[in-house]
Amino acid sequence: MQTPNAASVEKGQSVGRREIQVSRADLVAYAGASGDFNPIHWNERFARAVGLPGVIAHGMFTMGTAVQLVTDWVGDPGRILDYQTRFTKPVPVPDAQADASPASGGTTITVEGKIGAVDEEKGTARVDLTVSAPDEDGKEQKVLVKAQALVRL
Amino acid sequence: MSDTKGIAEDLQGRVYSNAPVYSVSREKIREFARAVKAQSAAHHDVAAARELGYADVVAPPTFAIIVSQAADAELIQDPTAGIDFSRVVHADQRFTHHRPIVAGDELSATVHVDSVRTMGGGAMVTTREEIVDQEGNPVTTALSSLLVRGEE
């Protein structure tokens, strides 16, 4: 894959958009992979008891999946020098409907990226991500704020 | 003390460095990459990673959270710190990579409690995890803010 060139990258330029499907099964896989077994990410009863709308995605799952847009754009995961975000809203992940497979259902996280800044001298660019998902009422909400990745071009 | 809900007054400035060394394996990188739906060949295929100039498969940008949170456990579980984990909400996260993490790395993390601030009925605890390799060279600096909610 061709790495974008600092001289040809412009502030405001889009790096793309993608939709990430998230099921309860994905959260179980992330819990195992990350070691974060907080039951709010897999147990409905526990999540509701602590005041959540139901099972929610790990903030780190959302942060971790959202950056793939940047990795694929830059073509080399080692070129992501810095990546940060604030977690502002939970991402509720509903169970599959009725007798459907437990690996189905869930929600969709939408990620859009654009170039926020370019430093030609250093050969770096900052990609600003807009990351949203529906809340428990189905209203689309920004779930990450100030989600920024600094990449070496 | 009522304003920081049992959190130790001298928590800011504390350092925790007893987490065991974390050995980064190819399979853990692949498992984590699958879990965050990361399809770049550099995470999965050794030859593809070497073609990009890495010694082995490359970890996704947020992989360091495994090492960082494992090290944080010492702080969370320290009864003298006074953090009630059931009231903790992850507020923000940052990773600064001094170099990419690759399979074969032996990583050690030191947790620094950089700040403790009162937030309404709770407190915001900001920690910095400095992750170094087997030679002691810096690999990743992680910054995490945890909001410890107050009693309702």
UniProtKB/TrEMBL annotation, chain A:
One of its GO terms (biological process) is fatty acid biosynthetic process. InterPro entries: Fatty_acid_synthase, HotDog_dom_sf, MaoC-like_dom. It comes from the Bacteria. Residues 12-96 form the MaoC-like domain. GO terms for cellular component: fatty acid synthase complex. GO terms for molecular function: fatty acid synthase activity. Belongs to the enoyl-CoA hydratase/isomerase family. This is Acyl dehydratase. It comes from Rothia koreensis. The lineage of its organism: Bacteria, Bacillati, Actinomycetota, Actinomycetes, Micrococcales.
Automatic annotation (TrEMBL), chain B:
HAMAP family: UPF0336. InterPro entries: FAS1-like_DH_region, HadA-like, HotDog_dom_sf, UPF0336/Enoyl-CoA_hydratase. Residues 20-141 form the FAS1-like dehydratase domain. It holds the Pfam family FAS1_DH_region. One of its GO terms (molecular function) is (3R)-hydroxyacyl-[acyl-carrier-protein] dehydratase activity. GO terms for biological process: fatty acid biosynthetic process. Belongs to the UPF0336 family. This is UPF0336 protein GMA10_00535. It comes from the Bacteria.
